[in-house]
Amino acid sequence: MPKNRNTFSSLAAWRRRVLSRAVHGGWRWVQETGAVTAEHPGRLRFRRLGPGTRLAFPQGTVFGEEWIVLGDHCIIAEQVTLTAGMLPGLDLGPDPILTLGNGVVLGRGSHVVADAAVTIGADTFCGPYVYITSTNHSYDDPDEPIGRQWPRSAPVEIGPGCWLGTGAVVLPGARLGRNVVVAAGAVVRGEVPDHAVVAGAPARVVRRWDAESGWQPPLRTPAPVPVPQGITPEQLAALAELDPDNA
């Protein structure tokens, strides 16, 4: 009897491995097939979908594509929401409402909700669950439920080369300059100058750079050393395995 039990256990383990491989292989096929690119846009018809840009599957809520411009080589992760207009089916006029520059990265679960114009500059990287919106609720009438009051809208502009940490929120009317760092969880409104680091809710400038004095307050860690040209991945892996005491 113990021998039979071991046989059945081995058979069940083998069956589970086979099924697991089949499920994972099938899901990879679904992800690849369901991804949206310029060559395979599926049901989505963006005003522009640049070459090399990819929306991972499954996508989040996407509507108003006619007013959405996606630049070249953008990476849109899974479950990212991209919307133009408050509701699907609206006529938003002749101009784009939501524009992503070349090389923009939107992390998993992020939301970009554009009722007024939202522009995200080239090479801006957003971590997971970043929320960017040009519309916010209003609460002027104390007797009316907030969700039933007409919202306020204002354009949002994020300059090129910015970095938005996980869970950052960018509110209507925000204007971020070039190469701005937004700390994780920060809530940004108003104007942020070039080469600034902002943190907190509401976000405040905690560090800035200028050509005369550099970073103020000074950086607490040394600048990273770039990888020399010509170094192969195998050489990097070998370096990582070195014992620092014997190097």
TrEMBL record:
GO terms for molecular function: acyltransferase activity. It is an enzyme of class 2 (transferase). Keywords: Acyltransferase, Repeat, Transferase. Pfam families: Hexapep (PF00132). Its EC number is 2.3.1.-. The keyword Oxidoreductase does not apply. PROSITE patterns: HEXAPEP_TRANSFERASES. InterPro entries: Hexapep (IPR001451), Hexapep_transf_CS (IPR018357), Hexapeptide_acetyltransf (IPR051159), Trimer_LpxA-like_sf (IPR011004). Belongs to the transferase hexapeptide repeat family. This is Acyltransferase.
